[in-house]
Design goal:
The complex is a heterodimer.
Chain A (H helix, E strand, L loop, with lengths): L10 H31 L5 H4 L6 H35 L5 H16 L2 H15 L7 H27 L3 H9 L4 H38 L5 H11 L4 H32 L12 H6 L10
Helix pairs in contact in A: 3-6, 3-8, 3-9, 4-6, 5-6, 5-8, 6-8, 7-8, 8-10, 9-10
Chain B lengths: L9 H31 L3 H15 L3 H15 L9 H31 L2 H9 L4 H16 L1 H14 L11 H11 L3 H30 L4
Helix pairs in contact in B: 1-2, 1-4, 1-7, 1-8, 2-4, 3-4, 4-6, 4-7, 5-6, 7-9, 8-9
The chains are: A mainly alpha, B mainly alpha.
């Protein structure tokens, strides 16, 4: 649709486009020039500050351990949050009000609260009520915060996935005399999981991005905080360190996003399935119909 | 048990949170709309810029952007956005970071809204001789905004929650005060409950009211 907002261009429109392109180029060039001049004036473009990244030292001492911690926290959070999310998502579809209502309250509550608040709470909780060593506490707190928030988002994804299946599926299951839990276990969930895969992979991007919070506020030694230590060690090359870290995050998340949209296209093409797909952004839209807080953190 | 609460300015901290959210919301709505216009426009260079901006910014953690505004822009490059005190500078930098990040999501929400406008609308507008900017301004965007209220609400709620990231650069908002209070007082559960309640109060009504508004204004098709 978006490409149909304008017609094939005639000579006048083409001339106008060239004019706009030139104006935009000049503006863009002016901004880039200003960035270049500012960086140069402050000495941030000195080769000394960027040179460390051509050697292996910063990669093996700072970046790789940091990246490992980022990936570890993200993977742990996903592995714990998935089953929890599935349980709450299914509970919200229960026909018993005493299961449905509390599950809905829990999910809406944790979706309405910032992850950072949950992480700060987790850190203090582990410090006061458990004997987790102070080295491990940040990891525990980060994972706790991520699990609580993402389990509730995944619950909405699971719910949307099950609701996206054609009604005939559960009717057919009832018709052949399956029990409620057999229907869920054998008919609905297996199909819903395939439909949900793209949304789950895109949630992974959110989790990876949120681990950086742990580095900035909870002293969790992940990629971003390793950049901080690194820029201190190599003589305040803040700009260089941040650029490298940002590029790594972009590459990682771009790979995940591309994988998610590839999955989505593939599932939409597949003829065997029911054709139900919960896309990357669908869950938030479906989830907020009449309820509370959504999130595209 | 509740005595210690009077030593802290909880309402003031939440007021900072609200200010961060509102200022960034206005800024990212403007910049996000411009980005969306670039992405659907006829000039290839602008389309490319819009797509690149959204894909890059969406994949960087907000924490990295916010921390960069403080450590990179403020400390390394001495850009203070016209503020003479460091706390005002941090506040403005946080708003800048939030706008840079959130506008990518606003752009996507608007584009999904533009996609709901039937092709016939734009075709009819062109048929009566409107230019691209007139088609966008007078016909497509007004309808797109009305059906984008739902996705934009989600972005606003996410933005409200994301303001807590400003705690990483020392802006005196709710999350920073919560951290300070937990460190000073032995009342973990009470303090956490207060701040959780504060955020529920900010986000749930936003979702409910704007959800209702979204249903009211949606174009019936």
């Amino acid at each position: 649709m978006s490409s149909l907002l304008y017609d094939a261009q005639g000579p006048r429109a083409k001339r106008r486009n060239v004019l706009f392109t030139v104006i935009f180029l000049v503006a863009l060039a002016a901004v880039l020039w200003w960035v270049y001049i500012t960086l140069k004036d402050k000495g941030q473009l000195e080769w000394v500050l960027w040179e460390p990244f051509t050697t292996s030292e910063p990669w093996s001492t700072y970046i790789w351990p940091g990246l490992q911690n980022t990936l570890k926290a993200a993977a742990l959070a996903m592995i714990i949050a998935l089953p929890l999310g599935a349980v709450f998502g299914i509970a919200r579809l229960s026909e018993h009000a005493w299961i449905r209502v509390p599950a809905a309250l829990v999910v809406e509550f944790f979706r309405a609260i910032p992850v950072l608040i949950l992480m700060i709470f987790g850190l203090a909780l582990f410090a006061q009520y458990t004997n987790v060593s102070s080295d491990d506490r940040p990891l525990y707190a980060v994972v706790t915060g991520l699990v609580l928030y993402n389990a509730s988002v995944l619950a909405e994804i699971v719910r949307a996935g099950i609701l996206s299946l054609p009604k005939g599926q559960s009717e057919a299951a009832m018709a052949i005399g399956l029990r409620k839990n057999q229907e869920m276990r054998l008919i609905l969930l297996p199909q819903a999981v395939t439909a949900m895969l793209p949304a789950i992979v895109s949630q992974m991007v959110v989790i990876v991005k949120d681990t950086a919070l742990g580095g900035a506020v909870l002293t969790f030694p992940e990629l971003l905080s390793s950049a901080n230590t690194m820029s201190g060690y190599y003589g305040a090359n803040t700009i260089a360190s941040f650029t490298v870290v940002a590029v790594i995050f972009i590459a990682l998340n771009f790979a995940l996003t591309s994988f998610a949209s590839w999955l989505e296209r593939r599932l939409r093409r597949a003829k065997k399935s029911t054709g139900a797909v919960v896309g990357a952004g669908d869950a938030e839209i479906a989830g907020t119909a009449g309820t509370g807080a959504g999130g595209t953190t | 048990m509740f005595d210690f609460l009077s030593d802290y300015d909880i309402l003031g901290a939440f007021w900072t949170t609200v200010q961060l959210a509102l200022l960034s919301a206005v800024g990212s709505l403007i910049w996000g709309t411009l980005l969306a216009a670039m992405r659907v426009g006829p000039v290839p260079l602008m389309r490319g810029f819009g797509t690149a901006y959204v894909n890059l910014v969406r994949n960087i953690p907000l924490t990295v952007i916010i921390l960069f505004t403080s450590l990179g822009l403020y400390q390394a490059l001495s850009i203070n956005l016209g503020a003479d005190r460091s706390d005002t500078a941090n506040f403005r930098l946080a708003v800048l970071g939030l706008i840079v990040y959130t506008s990518a999501f606003v752009c996507e929400a608007l584009r999904s809204g533009i996609n709901t406008v039937p092709v016939g609308q734009a075709e009819a507008a062109r048929a009566i001789g409107l230019s691209f900017s007139q088609v966008l301004r007078l016909v497509v965007l007004p309808q797109a905004f009305r059906s984008a209220v739902g996705p934009l609400t989600n972005v606003l709620i996410a933005l409200t929650k994301n303001t807590t990231v400003a705690a990483a650069i020392g802006v005196a908002e709710a999350a920073l005060l919560m951290k300070e209070m937990i460190e000073n007082e032995a009342q973990l559960l009470l303090i956490s409950a207060i701040f959780a309640f504060g955020f529920v109060c900010l986000t749930l009504p936003t979702g409910l009211i704007l959800g209702w508004v979204g249903k009211k204004v949606a174009v019936k098709r």
